[in-house]
Amino acid sequence: MFYVATGAILLALLFVVIRAIKGPTVFDRALAGNSIGTLAILLLASYGFLTGRPEFLDIGLTYGLLNLIGTFAVLKFFRHGDLAYDITDDEEKPGWK
Amino acid sequence: MILANKAVENAADHAVAAAAANPPGITKLTENAELFVMMVLLTLLAAITLAIIRQRNMFGVVILAGIYSFLMASVMIILDAVDVAMTEASVGAGISTVVLLATLHLTQSIEYPQRRSVLIPFFISVVVGAALVWGTSGLPAFGAKTAPIHGHVAPTFIQYSADHKMPPNIVTAVLADFRGFDTLGEVTVVFTAGIGVLLLLQGGWRVTGNGRRSEDDDEQQGMDSSGGTA
After folding, report:
1. Does the residue A69 lie in any domain?
2. Contacts from B217-224 at CB under 8 Å and sequence distance 24+?
3. What integer pLDDT is reported at residue A85 of this predicted model?
4. By residue range, what is the domain housing residue A72?
5. Is A54 part of a structural domain of the chain?
6. B170 vs B87, B154, B157, CA distance in Å?
7. Using a CB-CB distance cutoff of 8 angstroms, which residues of chain A are in contact with residue B109?
8. Among the ranges given (A1-5, B140-144, B201-205), the one the predictor scored with the smallest mean pLDDT
């Protein structure tokens, strides 16, 4: 069963990498990057059970946090060009930027 | 991508052929699975590397580099190097993506094609890469029992740390006692880098004055608050 799961995850990785390489817009690539992070967690889990050593599942938590923060950073940079951008600045001080 | 698909198919054929040649045992199956997963991941890495070279949009290059780091971290996990995988994921996919994006904000996001010939850099990189691959032929085989690290180094560490009442955790003993000066140097480097980053950040705020922590902003807020109370 874990063989099938691992194979399916690898197939999904292949499709997502195709989308990341072809992806016409930036958002396709950002979404593909996020999906690859998720698939890496899944691969870590299924491969751990496949080899009978699921001790490294905790690493998946770190990957999940990194994935979330990384995607936020990429999209925030794309939108504002500044990682510390505060959206309340626009409301309180119009014309500040 | 046709190339990548073909390579994946070849890897699948290889795994199937290996499974057919050997009687199905648990270890054999696991080894084949490891080989197959490694083949697929390395093929995807090669495809992404080629895409990074061909890509002209710098934002796409940054995201592809992050994807490369995540896949490389997966390869490290398959190779049982979980700590290296953690470092690769946090530094490669996390920090360097953000740093590259910050750099990208200061420059243009379209790469113009090179006017000069790329033959000499190509030649140099091929020669250096071939020399490195040739150098690995002198290394002992992966996981070999006769490697010097298993024959001399590890027993010496274990015996010496027991004789000299070092910490019972031998990894700690190696890092803090055997390699004490090395660790001191590393800590110095990390502290220096941290001080440098702090100075750069403060200097940037003071010079450009467009951050929210700049002195102008503080003055304005002070005026606002004083106006509010008055």
Report:
1. yes
2. none
3. 66
4. 2-92
5. yes
6. 22, 10, 8
7. none
8. B201-205
Q: What is the pTM of this model?
A: 0.66
pLDDT at position B220, please?
A: 45
Residue at A58 is within a domain: yes
Instruction: Collect all residues from A whose CB is shorter than 8 A from any CB in B.
Output: 3, 6, 10, 13-14, 17-18, 20-23, 26, 29-30, 32-33, 36-37, 40, 43-44, 47, 50-52, 56, 59, 62-63, 66-67, 69-70, 73-74, 77-78, 81-84, 86, 89
Q: Which of A30-34, B68-72, B110-114 has the lowest mean pLDDT?
A: B110-114
A–B interface: beta-carbon pairs under 8 A: 120
Q: How many domains does chain A have?
A: 1
Instruction: Kindly indicate the confidence band of residue A79, based on its pLDDT and cuts at 50, 70 and 90.
Output: confident
Which residue in chain A is spatially nearest to B51 when comparing CA positions? A21
Q: How far is A54 from chain B (nearest CA, A)?
A: 12
Q: Is there a domain that residue A19 lies in? A: yes
ipTM above 0.85, yes or no: no
Q: How far is A21 from chain B (nearest CA, A)?
A: 6
Query: Percentage of chain A surpassing pLDDT 70?
Result: 82
Residue corresponding to tokens 């690859």: A36
Burial class, B54, CB count within 10 angstroms (exposed 0-12 / middle 13-18 / buried 19+) = exposed
Question: What gap in Å lies between CA A37 and CA B73, rounded to an integer?
Answer: 10
